[in-house]
Amino acid sequence: MTDENGGIVVEGVARSFGSVQAVRDVDFQAPPGEVTALIGPNGSGKTTLMLILASLLAADKGTVRVAGFDPAAQPSEVRSRVGWMPDTLGVWESLTALEVLKTLGALYGMSEAARTSRAEELLVAVSLTEYGRQPARVLSRGQQQRLSLARALIHDPAVLLLDEPASGLDPGSRVELRSLLRSLAAQGKTVVVSSHVLSELDEIADRAVFVNRGRSVKNQTLDEAGTQTRRYYVRAEPMSALAAALGSYGVSFETRGDSRREEFLIQLGSTAEAAWLLRTLVLGEVVITAFAPAGGALEETYMSLDTDRL
Amino acid sequence: MSTVTEPSTPQPVRAATRLSHGAAVRSVFSLEMRQRLRGRAWYWMLGIWFVVIGVIFVLGLGTLDPAGNEGGILFDLIVGFVLFFGLLVAPGLSANAVNGDRAGGTLAILQVTLLSPGQLLLGKWLASWVGSLAFLVLSAPFIFWALTLGGVDVSEALVSLLMLAVELGVLCAIGVGISALADRPLFSIVSTYMVVALLTVGTLIVFGLSSALVTEEETTTTSYYDYPQSAFQDDGMIDPDAERECTTQTYVAPVVHTEYIAWLLAANPFVVVADAVPYDLPDPSTFDDEPDSFGYVGNYYSPGVMEMASQLVRAAQEGPDLDVTCEEAEAAFMPISQQTPIWPLGLGIQVVLAGVLLLVGRRRLTMPARRLARGTRIA
Predict the structure, then answer these.
(1) Where are the extended beta strands (E) located within chain A?
(2) If phi over 0 gives left and psi between -120 and 50 gives alpha, with beta otherwise, what is residue B59?
(3) Which residues in chain A are closer than 8 Å to B379, comparing Cβ atoms?
(4) Chain A neighbours among B 34-53 (CB < 8 Å)?
(5) CATH topology of domain A228-304
(6) Residues 217-276 of chain A whose Cβ lies under 8 A from any Cβ of chain B
(7) Which residues of chain A are in CATH 3.40.50.300 domains?
(8) Chain B residue with Cα closest to A174
(9) Which CATH architecture has domain A2-222?
(10) What ipTM does this complex have?
(11) B112 touching A, CB under 8 A?
(12) Which chain B residue's Cα is nearest to A180?
């Protein structure tokens, strides 16, 4: 499916640097028209995987297909179709944002007219129009991050690889990034995003690949993640009444240890079960002041994976 | 970030998976030049350069005798200094071209485009060459000043400047090549200076050390003019009517056959420039035959520094004169005309060195990378 029409297919990929095995065995698919999140702790091999997909690093073994092409054998085919936003900020300090975009456009073989109009469009898209003619060194970190995103989009790639795109962005920019990525996916592009900020990925990702110690440990769509067991925080006034009520319904709970407020943590199998519990508690005259999922669906998966400090 | 992401031209790059060499090299070149022109460092270097060359020129102008070969010597001095400073400046401009970008995180961004490693290196080399040529251009006022003093052939001036430009290009190529190979800018700049030192000082040292290998015992004949014993009067003064006589001696002595090792000097940048320049040597047939006040026959010959270098190389190529006749002893310092040009060999060695460095550097930049140096990150 994804092989023919684009997207990304990775099977059994491994890559080591000397004695360090950065990627051991990763399988995943990122179909076109969807945002795929690459989730894992620091040093789990996410960036290495991104570099392999961006045709900068050769895999030791395994097969990789990006937009239907092998990055190792046909790098030019892949490069013309892939936009890559690195996790490091590479800045040509004395160049203006517009010049950076136009230069990159030229290096993707775009005509003068095409790259100029595309660069102007992208500056609007990432809200940097007023900085277009200023040297890049005056940009703040978040602005440079946005310029980096625009750079990755300059040749209208079918596949987007974004390594930590949200880091350094203010809340407003994050919302804009989210809608930008959703609209790109809606246009049929393949979007791969790596991030630690799971609550954010919850809202933009269609599927998630969990990577730890160089292995892909779980592939999951967000719909699947939504139906899994989740934890809820419940607060009531007084807490003793809540404890008594929960005890009488046979619902096990624990006291949350990582919060300033006193809260109970309850494991529930589905949203239906959560709705039932809330209704029952309210009808049972328990004064509920808070009843909320403990984290996003992806965070739940992340925390539930049986890996050390994933 | 609104939703304006629909491209104005649908699929603008789908067709292009290759970049024309012209467009690619031009893009890299202008990227480099823009950064250089907007930085301060380059202007500071140019300013210091101008002042130093100016000071040297004015000092030379003040100390040299206007009656002598003033224009020629001053021109030669400027050429020598431009080459000397060029050897110092070119590595600085070129030897961090690639790994400086790697350190700044911009190299991978270029590598992920359709730009090929060869195009990248070519653009970087051209930019650093043009950057160094600016130093040559800035020396132009002094070069023209020296030329107006006369004594310098048009061909001599043109070839000198052309060879300077070529040497700067070769040095920049070496610097860019090393910068693609070495991981850290500091290391590559120091390495490039080491290569420059190897070419300029190293060749001389090797030449000097090798002379022991080509020293042989030879029967040598020398001649010299002196007054005979009878010319000395009782008071120790020389009889004004006495004639100097030629004495010829033959003995066995160690002789250095520099003709076997002269090629070791070829790759020296000063030798390459000096040997290529067609200096306008005085023609012995125009010399008057009357000995001058020092008893020597022939015109006074005063070469500049570069011409002197060229003469020394030719003397080394010629080897020792095992039979100095009375006629030779009578003549003043005779300029040696060129027999076998040595500069094509020297330039060839330099070009091969630069080419090898660039080729290995190109392989190093070819992505996807299979091997990475320890401690380096692609991005």
Answers:
(1) 8-17, 20-30, 35-39, 61-66, 82-85, 159-163, 190-194, 207-212, 215-221, 230-236, 254-255, 264-268, 288-293
(2) alpha
(3) 47, 51, 56, 86-88, 90
(4) 34-35, 38-39
(5) Alpha-Beta Plaits (3.30.70)
(6) none
(7) 2-222
(8) B1
(9) 3-Layer(aba) Sandwich (3.40)
(10) 0.83
(11) yes
(12) B3
Residue holding tokens 């920049």? B172
Strand ranges (E), chain B = 215-226, 245-256
Q: Examine the pLDDT at B267 and tell me if it is beyond 50.
A: yes
Give me the residues paired with residue A162 across strands: A85, A193
Domain boundaries defined on chain B:
21-202+343-365
* Residue of A71, A86, A187 lying closest to B368 (CB–CB): A71
| Cβ contact A145:A177 at 8 Å | no
Q: What is the pTM of this model?
A: 0.85
Q: Convert the pLDDT of each residue in A222-281 to its tens digit.
A: 777 666 677 788 888 888 888 888 888 877 787 876 667 778 888 887 778 888 888 888
**H/E segment holding residue A306:** none
- Looking at chain A, the domain(s) classified CATH 3.30.70 span 228-304
> B363: part of which helix (H) or strand (E)?
helix B343-365
Compute the distance between CA of residue A269 and CA of residue B139 in angstroms, rounded to an integer. 82
The whole-angstrom distance between A309's CA and the closest CA on chain B is 25
Q: Do B17 and A76 touch, CB atoms closer than 8 A?
A: yes
B368 and A79 within 8 Å at the Cβ level: the answer is no
